[in-house]
Amino acid sequence: MSKRRKPLPTEPVRARIESMTHDGRGVTHIDGKTVFVDGALAGEAVEFQYIARQRRYDEAKIIQVIEASADRVPARCAHFGVCGGCALQHVRPEAQIAAKQKALFDDLERIGHVKPRHVLPALTGPSWGYRRKARLAVKYVIKKERVLVGFREKHSHYLADIAHCDVLYPPVAQLLPQLTALVTALSIKEQIPQIEVAVGDNATALIVRHLMPFNDADRVLLADFARQHAIQLYLQSGGLESVALLWPEQGVLKYKLARHNVEFEFRPTLFTQVNAEMNALMVDRALELLDIQPQDHVLDLFCGLGNFTLPIARRAAHVAGVEGDAGLVQTARENAQHNAITNVEYHASNLGEDVMIYPWARKTYDKVLLDPPRSGAHELVQQAALWTAPRVVYVSCNPATLARDAGVLVNERGYRLVSAGVMDMFPHTAHVESIALFQKPG
Questions:
Q1: What's the pLDDT at 18?
Q2: With left for phi above 0 and alpha for psi between -120 and 50, is residue 81 left, alpha or beta?
Q3: What is the C-alpha separation between 298 and 55, in angstroms, rounded?
Q4: 20 to 30 A from 218, CA-CA: which of 152, 293, 408, 409?
Q5: Residue 109: how many CB atoms within 10 A of its CB?
Q6: For the whole prediction, is pTM greater than 0.90?
Q7: Helix (H, G, I), strand (E, B) or coil at 152
Q8: Could you tell me how far CA 257 lies from the centroid of its own chain?
């Protein structure tokens, strides 16, 4: 018979916070059991309330700070603590960066059993108004007889009731009340679950997901809204293949990497980095670490729409970009043509299988760039024949999978981990973006 779980204590508890988790929660121990306290910082004396009990740990939320950390600052957003979009607004920006650096290096040592010889200075950019891509949840709340547009509450499936967001790109953040009014006026407001946002240098696009067809009056309202706010407005009735432009008749989003004389065109459904300023800094750092020479042949794995490939091509003799998504590969080819870049080739290949079946994988490269999804490049780094290039730069959005793959590159493929560091792609969140340089000895 299983042991019955003890009920949650109802009385507030006072404790000293010992440390922080990688996702920004405070850690303490009560009667020998770990308690994760949401909103508490290391070193603080706090009063907290239990909210959940697990077998190996408990969860709690802060009620009041008795002795505050020097790293605590007032949260800028009035919705902080309720909205689940940000976790670290109450932490001094410099301390956020230090925590992310620590998370990266802890994972490298604990998971990969590797340590960089040099720590790269953290890359930072704007802390507010940086987010150019977002998925806004939409909900018609029957009991309130009103529409909510925004992000979900922390630890909840409910939507936070927000009228503004300080991390969204400002023109989009200012539209939240108007979007709420627009959805409220539609005949199928109960059947709209989300609005996706994509912002280029030239325009903003919104994709309205709808579970039932719009009537003619709805389509007029939507088109008028798009025209009034100079927005490219798309409708999505099903999967990605159903996304169709409502207004204007033609539309494309663009962004530039001016220092590399490259302009990208993209559809709002395609992956692009959410933080344009940080993306430009990241590309600069990747190229600096690659140390590209005019005679180099470079391999760009998980190349997407060519974000790294085309800037590399401006400096190298030849670049091969490889991506599993055929739509992204086609867009990358079109972007090469758009920029009159001819020393690049693209391949649509499954990077989760034995890539040595592909001709591109059997060629010799001087430099390799990796920019995988959160799951990392585990299958790729296992394939010894691929790893002959003397220099590899790995861009990661998940320090745990970077650490795992770094362990293979260093301990099995003969590379040294020369340097690593974080890039603050998502300020005020616990998300850790990082970059690492690997080199063969000699």
A1: 96
A2: left
A3: 50
A4: 152
A5: 13
A6: yes
A7: strand
A8: 19
Cα 93 from Cα 201, distance rounded (Å) = 26
Residues 6+ apart with CB under 8 A from 94: none
The side-by-side arrangement of strands in the sheet containing 118-119 is: 118-119, 416-423, 433-439, 391-396, 367-370, 297-301, 318-323, 344-348
Q: Match 């009063």 to its residue by tokens.
A: 47
Catalytically annotated residue among 77, 86, 303, 397: 397
pLDDT digits (tens, 9 = 90+) for 385-407: 999 999 999 999 999 999 999 99
Question: What domains, with CATH codes, occur in the chain?
Answer: 13-72 (2.40.50.140), 96-126+274-439 (3.40.50.150), 133-199+204-250 (2.40.50.1070)
Instruction: Using the CB atoms, write b or e for 116-139: b if 16+ within 10 Å.
Output: beeebebbbbeebebbbbbebbbb
Max Cα distance, the chain (Å): 71
Confidence of residue 4 (pLDDT cuts 50, 70, 90): low
d(Cα 11, Cα 30) in Å, to the nearest integer?
Answer: 14
Asked about 397 being catalytic, the answer comes back as: yes
Long-range CB pairs of 354-357, under 8 A, 24+ apart, other chains included: 354/383, 355/322, 355/380, 355/383, 355/386, 356/383, 356/385, 356/386
